[in-house]
Specification:
Number of strands: 10
Shape: globular
CATH topology of the largest domain: Rossmann fold
CATH superfamily of the largest domain: HUPs
Structural class: alpha/beta
Helix content: 25-40%
Strand content: 15-25%
CATH class of the largest domain: Alpha Beta
Number of domains: 2
Strand order of the largest sheet: 3-2-1-4-5-10-9-6-7-8
Distance between the termini: 19 Å
Largest sheet: 10 strands, mixed
Length: 279
Amino acid sequence: MAYKSLLTVVTDAEQSKSALAQMVALADGQDAHAEALCLGVDRSQAGYYYAGANALVLQETLSRANAEADELLVHTKDVLGKSGVRWSAESGVAQIADIGRHVAHRARFSDLVVLPQPYGKDRGAEAEPIVEAAMFEGHAPVLVTPEDATPFQRPSTILIGWNESVEAMRAIRRALPFLVQADVVRIVVIDPPRHGPDRSDPGGLLSQMLARHGAKCEIDVLSKTMTRVSDILNRHAADSEADMIVMGAYGHSRFREAILGGATRNMLEQASVPVFLAH
């Protein structure tokens, strides 16, 4: 299986540069179709205005969102038109509270959704719900690309964050097209349990499964020398010159991750290489 339908959602031309570039590179390397959904975000929902705001205010925000969508579409068509890959692009307007529905509908019919980092300087409030809608409502894997990441057609070195969770296994299965193409897949196990069926060979069964698909695996067992798992994975990705990290998303509830933080949120905030997520 290969990724043949790629999707990105553009709500800001500057912040979507890395995702567009990565999608084009993948479309070229995977012989896939690149699709862009350009959304103008309408924030004119109840609660944003004092009681008594008239319809002119609401019409103004809607007109502004339509103009923004048109500008994004022109920009995106220009980028994709020069790429040499098969592509399509269209625009639309969505209220911020309803943006997930539009994203999920398109993600459901895509093999992979490529999106910019949802956290960081000048990120819009819609960035996080777009990532979550693609994964949770669209049931699609998501490749999150940092601003300064170098686009790749085929990842050479891939890190897998392996903790034996259902979410991690689902991400690994969805990432198989990448894993079998990579020169090396490094299965990273951090502080494996001392008691359990795999205590003598942490990551061994996963390595065996992937090897039967043709992936070239190595197992890295690391100690938890830093407080956050995401920091350990990021440091190891830099040390091993990885092109991509594969991990399960949101092992805890999204509410808990948003309030207290977690491996997924921390990774999306700090990652310097693209992160492949599935739930």
